[in-house]
Design goal:
alpha+beta; two-stranded antiparallel ribbon; single chain; two-stranded antiparallel sheet
């Protein structure tokens, strides 16, 4: 089944107005200054909210 009328550019663009990409939020780890996602344990050092949560391998 085909549409009865062509969708105008304005109508099409209004519909797609919510499709814009937003940059991902990042924070700096207070312990090792590594960039991480907010409210997550740091992948680099294993610290979260000024305490070590996950033990990491030390070289």
């Amino acid at each position: 089944m085909q549409p009865k009328r062509k969708s105008s550019k304005a109508r099409k663009r209004k519909r797609r107005s919510h499709h814009a990409l937003t940059p991902q939020a990042t924070v700096i780890c207070s312990h090792c200054n590594h960039v991480t996602l907010p409210h997550r344990v740091c992948d680099n050092c294993g610290w979260y909210q000024n305490r070590q949560v996950v033990a990491t391998k030390e070289s």
